[in-house]
């Protein structure tokens, strides 16, 4: 469990339960806002996922998203592509309009900094079957 | 020296000596690029400063800079303001047009993620006198 404690006690706070976005997630996530400033075009937050937790498929319109992985083990998948296994230090750039999801692996907590521009469109949840396939394909 | 080892062995690589920007720094810095993508309007890098190292006064025009402190102890100062002492987990937002500098304290290594938009204008170095005053005022 050492890795899980590392995620929960990282450099940036884990923050409270992510109630505001809970309807767009499967499982429990936590969100600590880091930057929400009308004078800059990106928001920054620290997102933490319990094992098995992932967000729904979504798209950033007129924007982008950058993930900086800070702890644990996670998955990232773009529509039609195999999933990527993510570990601390990994970086993901999601381009404007690309349908994708991210989250923890089934047995590990996971945390990333998210740097986000534009307007998100939230889509369907990642089914248990597709989630299991993603993890299988990424390892 | 435990803290210094922590900075040098952080989540994101320290990268090579920052030769490209050496003329805009006093002392030795290191730079690991993380995102340089023409499809997004920000660049992201991990910057590490040896003890006493700081960058010159500079301005981000038509943009901004966000610092996410990842290790050690550092300083941030905007023109005309007292310096801030920075520790892991701290966040700094520099607005468009604001003259500022950042760097390590004199006895500690320091690292931060920099998320940068716009065009930098590099100005004069932070003199030894002003650097000492900044650190004194921040503690």
From TrEMBL, chains A, B:
InterPro entries recorded: Cupin_2, HNL-like_cupin, RmlC-like_jellyroll, RmlC_Cupin_sf
Superkingdom per UniProt: Bacteria
Pfam families assigned: Cupin_2
SUPFAM superfamilies in alphabetical order: RmlC-like cupins (SSF51182)
CDD domains on file: cupin_HNL-like
Record-annotated Cupin type-2 domain positions: 47-107
Coiled-coil annotated residue ranges, if any: none
This protein's name: LytTR family transcriptional regulator
Annotated organism of origin: Secundilactobacillus paracollinoides
Phylogenetic classification of the source organism: Bacteria, Bacillati, Bacillota, Bacilli, Lactobacillales
């Amino acid at each position: 469990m050492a890795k899980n404690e590392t995620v929960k006690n990282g450099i940036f706070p884990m923050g409270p339960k992510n109630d505001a976005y809970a309807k767009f997630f499967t499982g429990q996530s936590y969100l600590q806002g880091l930057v929400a400033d009308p004078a800059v075009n990106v928001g920054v937050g620290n997102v933490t996922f319990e094992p098995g937790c992932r967000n729904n498929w979504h798209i950033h319109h007129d924007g982008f998203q950058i993930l900086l992985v800070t702890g644990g083990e996670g998955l990232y998948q773009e529509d039609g592509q195999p999933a990527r296994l993510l570990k601390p230090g990994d970086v993901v750039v999601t381009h404007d309009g690309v349908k994708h999801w991210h989250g923890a692996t089934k047995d590990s907590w996971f945390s990333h900094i998210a740097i986000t521009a534009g307007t998100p469109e939230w889509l369907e949840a990642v089914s248990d079957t597709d989630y299991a396939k993603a993890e299988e394909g990424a390892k």
